[in-house]
Amino acid sequence: MKLIFDHKDEVIRFGVDQIKKSLERNDVYYIEQFAQQGTALDPSTGIVISKLSTPRGQKQKYDDQAFGITRTGGVIRIEGSDSRGVMYGCLEWAERLGRGADLNDGELLTQKPALGIRGIKYNLPYAPFDSGDPFVLNEQTCMDIEFWKSYIDMLALNRYNCLSLWSEHPYHLMVVSPKFRAANPFSDVEIDRNIRMFRELFRHAANRGIDIFLFTWNIRLIPEAARGLGLPEIVGDHGNMYDDLIHRVGLPLNRFRGQSEIVRDYIREMVLQILITYPELKGLGTSASEWMDGSGYEREQWIIETYVEAIKQSGRDIPFIHRTNMQNAGKEIKDMVQPLFDPSQFYISWKYSNAHCYSHPEPQFEKLWQAWEGIDLETTQVLYTVRNDDVFSHRWGDPAYVRDYVKGMLKPYIKGFYWGSDGYLWGRDFQHADYGHKTWTYDFERHLYQFQLWGRLAYNPDTEAAVWPYLLREHYGPAHAPDFVDALQQASRIIPAVNRLFWIDYDFQWHAESCLSQVSGFKTVVDFVHGKAMPGVGVMSIREYALAEAEGGLKEALAAYGENPADILRILQEASAETERMADRLEDELGELRGGHAECTLYDLRAYVEMGRYYACKFTAALELNRFELSGRAAHKDKAVAALEQAVAHWEKLGYYWSLHNKPYFMARVKRTFGYPFYLEDVRRDVELARRYNNSMN
């Protein structure tokens, strides 16, 4: 057969390469023919891949990033109106060849993206928003172009088209300016090496149809840059956002930065140099909130005089993404910044689920927090920030949940999203012990399924169920991949259920996978007694349930909610039992094929079983202590103690399965060491807290 394509288009060539691999796996012999060479006649048997040209003034046949695949006799034709669309068509056909999902003669298959921007939020380990082992242990990895090539190829295969890189101060790594040479701590040789690496990264992304966006936290410096500007190093300190500079300058630190002319000039010059040095950079984002002081108008004016002015001076017409977290300045944005951009090039970014995307697939914080007050959504484009600050260690994969989440984002004003974490980055897998069944290098390889789900379903929410086991066949084998998919779906119900019944907004306040908080350490049963349910999604809290029960109006009260503590307990118990059943069967059937990802995932599944049961016991105890508090009956306290004694046994098993293949690490944001055995005494202390519980502990 013949394989005809445009070999000069790097984006299309990547898709064609995947078709070649599938043909070779199927022992199909093919002859390549470049579209610009040879006969224009279609072959009798083959694959013809083409990007359609659109005459001026006419509507293109396919939407951006869309494709069509048709079969006419022995010829498959893949086409689209842009390179990305053609590449996605090639990727689709390559997978169909592998799955044996052919087309009938005359059949047409078309797809177009549900969300136009499908991105990753990647916090770089250089001047990161927060520090911890995920960042410290990945500094070398993120300056290794081979890592980025592998990561970007994975993103392209899974239909992502945006990689957003986040840093408080990326400038010292990426650019240099003669005007502020002293503010860059690197030598000329080091600067040149860094620039070459980032240019290659950006080029590789462009060749895979992926746009690079760069995000900052607006006004932050590093101590070396501050010193180079002739300022005290504390001006570039990465400490608490409320640090003062009273003893050095006389004004609060954040206000000093905002009022300093040299800081303003420096940031503007750095942004300008970024735009000039990296023509492949496709978007720039920042906020006027964190680390800034003053009124909304003062902060927006600073953004205009730095970022917006730099874009103007560069002569480039690129998207500007204005983040709005921790900020209520919709009117100021609309009045001051938005009019300076073409409507198609201006976006507002919003944290859709705050820090916990694994909670409820339709979060309501936009309404609860009046996110769009002062914003005209008829003329404004919005990008959601989807934060997974919930699960860093165990594999996660629930296609139904992600599908519902994506469909919940399909609103007229939403143009896309990027997902990731503030407390973690998926670089080198530093958590896993480097022996035994570990056969991979990078964290995204271990957590590949999670990446596949968000990218594929954001492009096509109706992706067939058969795709998932096919994608995971190399991890688990074709015979066992379907069972692993089902088991992971059950296990992945646990963390969202926990977050819905015990909700705290921010990542540093609550991390469900570890039961830890930067603010208070291990979350005790007392914290759970009066814990709040996730707001706005119809979940009844434990306290509300106990009060309604005590007042004799439980049946009537339940009618006002879509989910209650009894429902959450049932989910945790059922998901744990079903996960255990599937893990048992897989363990029996795998035999000598147990190893690599299969063995690692089995340990994850076993850990989820114990995690689900641990939280079920803890919620049960919290409910019983509420009942005790309201009724004074000691029997409820006894039940709470018994449930927490069971929780200890589950935590011990959770720690056992975790320790079989993982190492402890120091968490960013939470600022605690992750590792279940380290907190066993805290779990045991919960039993004693329950025994001593009285109303004064409220």
Short characterization:
The chain has 698 residues and is an alpha/beta fold.
What does it look like?
There is one protein chain. The protein is built from 26 helices and 18 strands. Helix content is 44%, strand content 13%. With 698 residues, it is of the alpha/beta class. Strand 4 and strand 5 form a beta hairpin. It folds into three domains: 2-111, Chitobiase, domain 2 (2-Layer Sandwich), CATH 3.30.379.10; 117-474, TIM Barrel (Alpha-Beta Barrel), CATH 3.20.20; 494-697, no CATH class. This is Beta-hexosaminidase bacterial type N-terminal domain-containing protein.
Please write the CATH class name of the largest domain: Alpha Beta
In the CATH hierarchy, the third-tier topology of the largest domain is known as TIM Barrel
| Proportion of beta-strand residues | 5-15%
Helix content: 40-55%
Biggest β-sheet: count, sense, barrel? 8 strands, parallel, barrel
- Supply the CATH superfamily name of the largest domain: Glycosidases
Computed over alpha carbons, the radius of gyration is 27 Å
Alpha plus pi helix count: 26
| First and last CA, distance | 75 Å
Number of beta-strand segments? 18
Structural class: alpha/beta
Q: Can you tell me the number of structural domains?
A: 3
Oligomeric status? single chain
Morphology call: globular
What is the residue-averaged pLDDT? 94
CATH-level-2 architecture of the largest domain: Alpha-Beta Barrel
**Uncertain stretches of 5 or more adjacent residues:** 240-250
**Which strand order spans the largest sheet, edge to edge or round the barrel?**
7-8-9-10-11-12-13-14
Protein name: Beta-hexosaminidase bacterial type N-terminal domain-containing protein
Organism: Paenibacillus cremeus
